[in-house]
Design a protein that fits this description.
Blueprint: H1 2-9, E1 10-25, E2 28-41, E3 48-60, E4 66-75, H2 81-88
Antiparallel strand pairs: 1-2, 2-3, 3-4
């Protein structure tokens, strides 16, 4: 649901996976990767270029197909601390 919401506002125009590792054990597979992507806004706004770490867990069904059952990612780029401070600061006169 979160990704559907993201892609209502952005279009992914670039995707690369310079590092990818997959380990299969029985009916489970464990994926670790690094990906880089560019998201371009569908309307106004700035594009987002990110480099992120990804870990996914996959399960093989009885018919042989694989489905992702869990995934987690985080940006590998440093946080913009000054922007975060500005966005979370209380407006003047509200203390």
């Amino acid at each position: 649901a979160w990704l559907r919401g993201l892609f209502q506002h952005y279009t992914m125009t670039e995707l690369a996976m310079p590092e990818r590792e997959l380990t299969v054990s029985g009916d489970f597979a464990f994926e670790r990767s690094l990906y880089e992507w560019l998201l371009v806004p569908n309307g106004e706004g700035e594009s987002i270029r990110d480099r992120a770490n990804w870990v996914g867990i996959w399960r093989r069904a009885s018919n042989g197909t694989w489905s992702e059952i869990c995934g987690i990612w985080n940006s590998a780029l440093p946080a913009n601390v000054e922007q975060a401070k500005a966005e979370t600061a209380e407006p003047a006169g509200t203390t």
